Amino acid sequence: MKTIISLLVLAVVGLACSPEPATTKDMLDGGTLFDPSLYNPGNYLLSKAIPTPTLEQAKKPVIIACHGYCATTFEWDEFRSWSNGRTDFYLSRVLLGGHGRSYDEFKSSTWHDWQAAIMDEYSQLEKAGYQNISLLTSSTSGALLLELVASGSFANHIKPRNLLLVDPIVIPSDKSLSLIGALGPTLGYIETKQSADEDKVYYHFWPQETLQQLQSLLTIVRQDLEKGITLPLGCSLKVYKSKKDPTADPVSAVLIYQGTQTADGKPVNIELIDSDLHVYTRLKLRDSVADKDQQNQKATFADIVSLVMR
């Protein structure tokens, strides 16, 4: 998920908005461009690329990578490029439900739809015989994954080995998101400020319906963390959290640390990253990228793989 623009400011602008946004064919929202995983699922989903693995293939570690709100599989392109040529693990990139399609499909989707795509790929890989599966998330997909664990969705499945959360959002940095319930119908949608290239891989317009879904999800996850979330047996969790995240308040990492534990009662691992970017592992199309950002990205990619390969 990209930076949430202040709803308090946009409430005034929203009064003058038309009921539906003016999309173009050059935007992801426009119904002409689609996430490439929809055209060539075998290039993204391991369940489609190798549906009947050999015994040796089935034992290799698998990383299911999931993107954030309003994003697409593009968010993990750089991890794929970084790991290109490696044969000791597999990468499967999931497109969240309702994402990567038209504005109307995004608008009508629920957080349950977003989440279902994650569990579908997990189940397909399990059915095919893969035995060593980890999940890698960014932003909102981190909250979706925490809800899956809290609701016991893995109870009747093989247990994930690692849950790896990059800049998970539990508390938004922009607290005005809490007003979306009252202001949403007036706003209709929010228009983001991003480049033309970003318009091809991130939604330019955010329907207020999806922002309400996001708010509902975060409320549920906060309640789950207050009650306490216990990880499946043999599963570990690590959070990589940018210290100055403009979208996901760093206190999100604190709440996850306080509200989760391993099956044997041990604390989860939190690593604070010296970054002011949200989803600092995605650097393409940023206005500016410093050497520090490149180093953070590479170090995190290396750490992710080292944990999965244990």
Provide an overview of this structure:
The protein is of the alpha/beta class. The protein has a single domain (7-308), classed as Rossmann fold. 38% of the residues lie in helices and 14% in strands. It has helices at 7-14, 36-39, 46-49, 55-59, 77-83, 103-108, 111-128, 140-150, 180-187, 208-227, 251-259, 291-308; strands spanning 62-66, 90-94, 133-138, 162-166, 189-191, 205-207, 229-230, 236-242, 260-261, 269-273. The strands form 3 sheets. Strands 2-1-3-4-8-10 form a 6-stranded parallel β-sheet, sandwiched between helices. A two-stranded antiparallel sheet has the order 5-6. A two-stranded parallel ribbon has the order 7-9. Helix 7 (111-128) crosses helix 8 and helix 10 (208-227) crosses helix 11.
> What structural class do the secondary elements suggest?
alpha/beta
- What is the residue-mean pLDDT, rounded to a whole number? 93
Domain count: the total is: 1
CATH superfamily grouping: Alpha/Beta hydrolase fold, catalytic domain
Strand order of the largest sheet: 2-1-3-4-8-10
Principal-axes shape call: globular
As residue ranges, the low-confidence spans are 5-17
Oligomer: single chain
Largest sheet: 6 strands, parallel
β-sheet strand percentage = 5-15%
CATH architecture: 3-Layer(aba) Sandwich
N-to-C order of helices and strands: HHHHEHEHHEHEHEEHEEHEEH
Q: Number of helix segments?
A: 12
The span between the termini is: 30 Å
Please give the share of residues in helix.
Answer: 25-40%
